[in-house]
Amino acid sequence: MKRQFVKVCPVPSEQQPINEYEELKTSWFFCLATSGSRLFLRNIIIIWSIGWLLSSPLAAASFPPDQSLLPFIVSSDIGAGVLLVLFLLQLISGWYHIKGRLKKKTIFYEESGWYDGQTWIKPPEMIIRDHLIMSHQVNPIVNRLTNTISILTFVMFSHIIVWIYF
User: Fold this and answer.
1) Where are the transmembrane segments (predicted)?
2) Which of 35, 62, 65, 75 could be joined to 39 by an S-S link, Cβ 3.0–4.6 Å?
């Protein structure tokens, strides 16, 4: 359901922050961040596993598992982590974009192309609605993704330390 302020808002429907939020929330890629904790964790594990399957042949070429098991595992994990970081960065960039659009008191929009952009000041009720959506819907998603990236960064650095010292 697309919401819009028809009589008040000159911004095209698809460029209104609330409709961009609804579209992002239902998109097949970005909705992965809105899923429950178990489903989110399952998706993270699946993406990491795919990354591991892609990076392990490369790691095996450099470090044969039968001769260098620890370097093989660590390099495969780092390769899988890189894919997962790219995936999470794409998710968080989309959600940060929506957060920024909801947070602003103005809406920049394009009327017919990139060359004729306009700025419209949101009315107070729209500002309040957008801030509520941002704080209660978008911020928890951004926090979840930020925490996930932080944990992944810690794991990746621990793998690098293992790589250096062992």
Assistant:
1) 44-63, 69-96, 145-165
2) 35
